[in-house]
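Please review this one.

:::
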Amino acid sequence: MVNAYATVVARQAPGGGNNNGGNNNAGGGNGAAASPTPAPNPQQSQSASASTSSTSSISIPDSVPAGGILMIDPPNTASQSFYKIHPSEYITFRWNLTSLVVTPTSLTVIASCAANGNTYPVGPTDGTQNTIKGDSTQVVWNPYQWAQVPGQPAFAVATYQLEIYDEGGPGARARPGRFSPYTGTKFGMYLPQSPVPLDQWTCTTCSGAIRALGEPAGLSIFMSLLIVLITTFGMLRR
């Protein structure tokens, strides 16, 4: 019996043996061998690294003009536009991107007011607000909605200037093929006024003499002078 058991063990030994009741196979054909991990490809690593730094290390000739914006709506050739600050009043600014070799990562849009020294975000009040994607060609703005945001300065009835710049900031210098900060489009903003009853209305552009004629005493004096002039004229014709 001992010799027969030893023979069985000896025959199993070349196969690596079964442990834990045959559940784990170290050798033989019962266990699937792990595939070897391939060595990294140096060319693929270099390609990935080059694509990551391509925009920062790209060489642009000095003969290439600086990139920027050409306004479409409102056009700079048109007379100044005026917009109403109202819940239903949406303002759309449209432009074309010109002479760009490198597209900016983002664009920031603001409106500056020289009358009060404030700047206002131009864009939606939610999401990215006034910071949009670098290849964007328009932005939609509702000033009334921004006026409801706590901490925002009140809008003045005045002239504003549109400013657009990329991640380099408003003071970035012009470089060939890259985005240059834009300032130029001017527009006016005004607040709607409630209707005024006719008896409370006054003419703000009329002279004092004309306003006096609308009063009873002034009208009586005017009529007296008119009668005197008509009478004198009739007597002189006789």
